[in-house]
Amino acid sequence: MDNSIKKQILLAVVAVLLLALPFIASATGYPAMTSLATRALIYGIAAASLNLVLGYGGMVSFGHAAFFGLGGYVVGILYQHYTQDDLFLGLVPGTNQLLVTLPVTLIVCGAAAALIGALSLRTGGVQFIMITLAFAQMLFFLFVSLKTYGGDDGLIIRRTNELFGLKMRDKQTYYYVCLAITAVFFFLLWRLVNSRFGNVLTGLRQNARRMAALGLPAYRYKLVAFIISGMGAGLAGCLMANFLRFASPDMVHWTKSGELMVMVVLGGVGTLFGPLIGAAAYIVLESVLASWTEYWQLGLGFILLFVVLYTNGGIEALFGRLLGRRV
Amino acid sequence: MLRRTFLALAASAMAAFPALAQDPVKIGLITTLSGPGGYIGQDIRDAFQLAIDMEGGKLGGVPVDVKVEDDALKPGQGKQIAEKMLSNDGVKLFTGIVFSNVAGATVPDIVDAGAFYISPNAAPSNMAGKECNENYFVVSWQNDSLHESAGQLAQNLGYKTAFVLAPNYQAGKDAITGFKRYFKGEIVGETYTSLDQTDFAAEMAQIRAAKPEVVFQFHPGGLGIAFLRQYEQAGLLSTVPMVLAEPSMDAVTLKAIGDAAVGLNISSHWNADFDNAANKNFMEAWMKAYNRMPTYYASQSYDTALAIASALKATGGNMDDADAFRDAMRKADFESVRGKFKFGVNQHPIQDWYHLKVEKGEDGKPVIKTVGDVFKDHGDAYADQCKM
Amino acid sequence: MTLFLEQLLNGLQFGVMLFLLAAGLTLIFGIMGVINLAHGSIYMVGAYAGTWVAMQTGSFFLGIPAALAAAALVGAAIEFLIVRRLYKRDHLDQVLATFALILIFNQVVTLLFGRQPLFVSIPPLLDGSVQLLPGLPYPVYRLAIIVVGLLIAVGLYLLINKTRIGMLVRAGSTNREMVRALGVDVRVLYTIVFGLGALLAGLAGMMAGPILAVQVGMGEQILITTFVVVVIGGVGSIRGAFVASLLLGVVDTMLRAYLPSMLRHVMVGPEADALGAGIASMGIYLLMALVLLIRPKGLFASNF
């Protein structure tokens, strides 16, 4: 059978499984599986966004938690002003409508990514890793010292944002909302990485000098990729804050940036669906191991080590080899 | 003969039948077991288990099944575990959370789902006031009380000027607010440290320069150990006395500081030397089982188990009737290791607070002794805002 | 004025501790091109091993060789078993593998030593404080840390500039391929450098023992700050690491000591304190961002 047909069949099977998941979950007596899957989808969006700069663009950002957390805080802060019925900075009214918070998140995170990216992209290599970390840490300490917005304790969002009068509190409904957003997100991402822009980005990673010789402005391309990536991570943060009904500095902490990186590498760097698989694997592992033993981090550590040392390209590559596809 | 044996067997089988039919009551214990705060979660888990073991696997005569999971001090993780236990395992009774931020994220989910949360430790102010809930009980204290009692203690000891320090997070700011609510003297210095800070040399220099009569500081767990040792090393412990609330001087911290801690004043609601039957019982069983000094976290968790036991006994372990369980909980019909105990209108404790002092014990090692009272029947400042 | 001097000493002492960690990290970074997140775990291993031996024997000074040996052995083992396979991989794989090592080390230490922090007291020889100036008492132990740190800095300077190993290290951090091409057994060199870095981290851990709480997770707290030092100083440069360590130690201490009181002139007390503490925590990252924007390769960049 042709490889592309194989791939399409696989995609269709996965899509059906994802659509049926809440029913499978309640039928098998594990209703919490729906929530687990929701988390995996959300982290999948964040990891795939990171992968755009990391895998396709070759920019190792160690500060993507900044955008993830910022997205969460946009929802939290707007909700707080909505319930208190006052204005943010005396200007902006609060809201609890997802159709408002989502675009606001994208604008705020895009602007933040433009600023951080514009400065960080002046460096490269290890320095780029560290300067992105530095900006994320600054944001972390900013949120920790903002007493109005909960400081270190975080911000409780009593009710999930509203959308078309859906029962967003219901876990299945929220799962389908996230699934729809994830599908749209990955469709756009697929278009992006296969566009001229995506090709240039990959080219820049492989050989920056040749691209410069072709007269392409590397800095501008990289910056645009960084901004899109920041918006994607912000989107995930927005969904996560709505899911947890909680935003906290924990979302901005450097270990969160590390976790996102782990998901990308676990799934497969520079592949479209690798980060989603990696996110799902990480979330499931964490949850399953934690229910087995309180020393779950030990198991997780060994599994990660194994993946790095022996799989050579993450889970996506493992699958690829099992399917007989050359990667 | 045979017939009689058969009858006896049948009778005993009949007698055993109800016990067999009763499924154990599932209790979800979500606590922090990894990282620097891990020893606190360990004491909470061990004390809860101790109470169950002392009753032979039961609480209040009802078999229980405790599921322990580590929240790794991540609010999101706590929420996820609670959700899993609620929907997959049908758990209706939760306890165990150590830190306020995890509680803030997790407890609303639990009570919104109609389950109960009985807190053995964290009790943030919003959940004691406006957002109190009829399914939310606190057996330990409301966060502010710890520091209010320390403020009153400093006042009782006659100090006129104080230097106050706490980490720059909500519980730290609450600590300083609580202290100032009852300390009427002058605050000559107020410093916020960082939560991941381990070197306090800069703060020591500031304290020395400010020359206060007393220092109040709140640094839980490992932070407190580092702070106190550096305070001693800077030569301050012998010149500026310190008043503490119990989180900054538990059994683990005392072991770390050693002789230098002698003379420190602490406010607390429980101490290992309390002279009541329940406490003696607890101390004996604890030392036998674990052979280390329990922290006050352990005592609170043990009390939590006893409180749950009293309610399970009253309802016969029927968790389906939430109203009956709630009414039984409210009575607080158990022998607390701290002596007197009752719940206020917001289902937070009303209890006595004591003045403890570190003294040299008979074997030469420092011990924490109870020397007097600070508050009688002290509730919290938020109960009025609670509409239930 | 004496207060200022005391804070300066505090900053110096913090800087020296950072240097012990940063020296190893910058060499590993510069010579092998490996991002080693597990460096903080080695610091923790040193602290635990040294403190445990000191507790068992009652002698702080017996703890020191134990800390050094444990840290160096663990460091060499990590290099030999895991990091060696990662030299040719990209930074991502290294980050992931050493992140996994952090998880493993934290849990293994918990299993071995329990969750309660360990503690050792200052040896009587170094206990107490001395009057440096009238009105300026300073703990002897902290002075000792400063002296030890400076001695090690001098030692490293001599090692790198005057010995054959040092020559290879210098050559390695400038042009890795060339050293290999010249027929030097880089494998041995790598293991030695990794072990040396681990040794210094272990020493730092042991020295921190009597001041801080020896507990699980102590490595991560200082790891990120150490990375900041390495990057500000310039990857691969010991001199850069030294200057950046002291700079960072002093800046961090001074910000924490003086920023809140400066802010209090313009805003109300508690808010100034909280905001000041927040900005002070941000300080080192702000410094790093500024340095990198002006000198993208750090203060003392080698050609790497």
UniProtKB/TrEMBL annotation, chain A:
Keywords tagged on the record: Cell membrane, Membrane, Transmembrane, Transmembrane helix
- What's its membrane topology? Multi-pass membrane protein
Q: Where in the cell is it found?
A: Cell membrane
Superkingdom assignment: Bacteria
- Asked if Cell membrane is a keyword of the record, the answer is yes
Q: InterPro entries given for it?
A: ABC_transp_permease, LivM-like
Q: Which residues cross the membrane?
A: 53-79, 99-121, 127-149, 174-193, 223-248, 260-283, 295-319
Any keyword Transmembrane helix?
Answer: yes
Q: Which PANTHER family match?
A: ABC TRANSPORTER ATP-BINDING PROTEIN (PTHR30482:SF17), HIGH-AFFINITY BRANCHED-CHAIN AMINO ACID TRANSPORT SYSTEM PERMEASE (PTHR30482)
Q: What is this protein called?
A: Branched-chain amino acid ABC transporter permease
From TrEMBL, chain B:
Question: Leucine-binding protein domain: which residues?
Answer: 24-361
Pfam families, sorted: Peripla_BP_6 (PF13458)
Q: Which UniProt keywords apply?
A: Amino-acid transport, Signal, Transport
What the entry lists under InterPro entries is as follows: BCAA_transport, Leu-bd, Peripla_BP_I
Is Ribonucleoprotein included in the keywords of this UniProt record? no
Q: Which domain of life is it from?
A: Bacteria
Signal peptide residues on this chain, from the entry's feature table: 1-21
Assigned protein family: Belongs to the leucine-binding protein family.
Q: What is this protein called?
A: ABC transporter substrate-binding protein
Q: Which species is listed as the source?
A: Ollibium composti
Automatic annotation (TrEMBL), chain C:
Q: What is its main location?
A: membrane
- What is the protein's name according to its record? Branched-chain amino acid ABC transporter permease
Transmembrane parts of this sequence: 12-38, 58-83, 95-114, 140-160, 188-216, 222-251, 272-294
Q: Where does the protein end up? A: Cell membrane
- What are the alphabetically sorted keywords of the record? Amino-acid transport, Cell membrane, Membrane, Transmembrane, Transmembrane helix, Transport
Q: How does it sit in the membrane?
A: Multi-pass membrane protein
Sequence similarity: Belongs to the binding-protein-dependent transport system permease family. LivHM subfamily.
Does Cell membrane count among this protein's keywords?
yes
Q: Which InterPro entries match?
A: ABC_transp_permease, BCAA_transport_permease
Species name: Ollibium composti
